[in-house]
Protein 1
Amino acid sequence: MSTRVRWLGHSAIHIETDGVHLLIDPFLTGNPTAAAKPDELPAHFILVSHGHADHVGDTIPIAQRTGATVIANFEISQWLQKHGLDKVHPMHLGGGHDFPFGRLKLTIAHHGSVLPDGSYGGNPAGFHLFLKDGSKIYDAADTALFSDMRLIGEEGIDLALLPIGDNFTMGPDDSLRALNFLTPRQAIPIHYNTWPLIAQDPQAWASRVRETTRTTPVVLDPGGSIQLR
Ligand code: NI
Ligand code: MN
């Protein structure tokens, strides 16, 4: 039983849990901080949080090459089917489902979701994963702070993935407030330093996390990973 979480830069995440490979928001082509190429990543499942190009990213070519099932909200799932993918699993906010890797629940996120060609992308989502080895991971994806993060925290979080870039999502100040709602054991900052507009100092953020929350900050370089179990 083991779970490893690898940050690929921006919001792209690779989770390997008991031999099952999950990719979240695999934006690699055009991502100046990408730590992997889309044609080298294994994938059984690809999770897409919302329609923006920096999250849909390389989903279609990776799914075509690997045969991975793409999990996204209903509207994005339909759009992916129109673009040639047949293995899609539509879900929506508040809904959970048991997959071979464990249970996944879609959480609310306050953001936009239009798809790269202007199509409607439904409401943006976050992901709460309850993996079979017991690891609980919450990926907030792109969102503002919201007080219902308390409710997500009540379900238990070992590792939170939180945006800290500011401008398009919550910034460092609100991410600290989010951690006090979510109370995860560990947190990895994402969605920063991809472009100058979302530049942040992750070590300064980590110091503040240690001072003002009960969470252990884990700052990774793109390509870096942590073992959960
Ligand atoms: Ni976005
Ligand atoms: Mn984004």
Protein 2
Amino acid sequence: MKVLIIEDNPLNMKLITEILKTEGFEYLEAKDASKGIEIARKELPDIILMDIQLPDMNGIQAMRKLKNNSNTSSIKIIALTAFAMKGDRERFLREGFDGYLAKPFKYSQLIDVINDTCQCREASNKGG
Ligand code: MN
């Protein structure tokens, strides 16, 4: 499974990549939405972890651009939000995201949301 992380905070990016590396996922990194969209179109990841507060456009706009393009519309997109509020999950799912995770999160929460959102679980090495 190939995961694209779109996240401008270097510490969050490092945390996420360490987890994905440990779990054996292939991953790609982008620090802003424009670069993330470019990589998504080129690499067609299975799943995108999308920060909502990004320097160039917000994660909801970036998600819509990907969902509105037939080449990238089937990519599952998980919203990553800081300062989570009650009702956020429902709000982001209604906007069109496939999954939702509030920051800060635990190791297992990140893995669970990826597995719950993406049907392709072959890269999960929990099976043995
Ligand atoms: Mn951010």
